[in-house]
Design goal:
The chain is an alpha+beta fold. It is built from 12 helices and 9 strands. Helix 2 runs parallel beside helix 5. The longest helix is centred in the middle third of the chain and has 15 residues. The chain is elongated and about 75 Å long.
Length: about 280
């Protein structure tokens, strides 16, 4: 991996995340005149500024062809050497587990997320109190990779960044994605990548919580103009005591709704939903 080691740590992290994400290493066909592989990444016009931000790290190693809306590279030995780390013999893509040792900077998480992730918000509307609680989650839509590889990526992120992702079922691809399930991990993730994405304002809608909150406020004020908007706090995601678990079970048996239980236990709607699912699996 001599060529990869010649890149700066930031370049290594951005490039590896990009190939796992939206990018690809082009194939070499038998009758091709090319001796080496190259990099290619298609994008829509709405993400043009993000791609300009991405290539700014690479000193002309990567460039944009505007007409085809692609990030590209020349054919280089670097991509020929990288190709077997990302692709099986049949051409299917896989996560380069041996290369994750390079991926310890916030830029890795940031690019992986901006390529294939979403900031999803679950609203809990309490009409009695006229309060809307917003519970944010980070989703990494990596369903094209096998479960076992996602588990290794999950462990890598936990070990090096301290963020807990859970495997979650998905109807497409190979059936699994990664997502945060606690508010604490969601905000910890956004805090980690903040230093890497500060110069990429076009993606603030999913990397900057304050900016996203402004968007959410505008949306909900049109529907419920006299409601208060709150973000679910870390405290609302605290562990359940034995007393709370028993109370949840008792209320469920008596036919209480999820919202009634949430109000009684001072928890969010979705916190009760997830906890009840856990109890049912036990």
């Amino acid at each position: 991996m001599d060529d990869l080691s010649k890149l700066t740590p930031v370049q290594q992290n951005v490039l590896i995340a990009s190939i796992i994400g939206d990018g690809e290493i082009t194939k070499l066909y038998k009758k091709s005149r090319r001796k080496n592989h190259s990099y290619r990444e298609h994008f829509g016009m709405e993400q043009a500024e993000y791609r300009k931000w991405k290539i700014s790290f690479f000193d002309n190693l990567l460039y944009i062809t505007p007409r085809s809306q692609c990030v590209r590279s020349s054919s280089l030995p670097l991509f020929t050497r990288l190709y077997p780390y990302f692709y099986h013999d049949d051409g299917s893509k896989h996560i380069p587990i041996p290369l994750l040792t390079y991926c310890t900077l916030p830029h890795f998480l940031a690019v992986l997320y901006m390529d294939d992730g979403s900031l999803c918000i679950s609203p809990n509307i309490n009409k009695r109190k006229k309060v809307i609680y917003l519970t944010p989650h980070i989703y990494l839509y990596l369903q094209n990779y096998p479960r076992e590889e996602l588990k290794k990526l999950q462990q890598h992120i936990l070990s090096h960044f301290g963020v807990t992702f859970r495997l979650s079922k998905h109807p497409n691809g190979q059936g699994c994605i990664l997502r945060t399930t606690s508010v604490r991990d969601t905000f910890h993730f956004l805090n980690i990548i903040s230093s890497a994405i500060s110069t990429c304002p076009s993606m603030y809608y999913k990397t900057n919580w304050n900016e996203r909150l402004k968007i959410e406020k505008e949306k909900w004020q049109k529907i419920f103009p006299d409601f208060e908007l709150r973000t679910s706090s870390h405290e609302r995601s605290k562990r359940y005591s034995k007393k709370e678990i028993q109370q949840l079970k008792d209320m469920k048996q008596k036919g209480a709704t999820i919202q009634e239980i949430a109000d009684t236990l001072h928890r969010s709607y979705w916190s009760i939903v997830y906890k009840w699912r856990e109890i049912q699996k036990e």
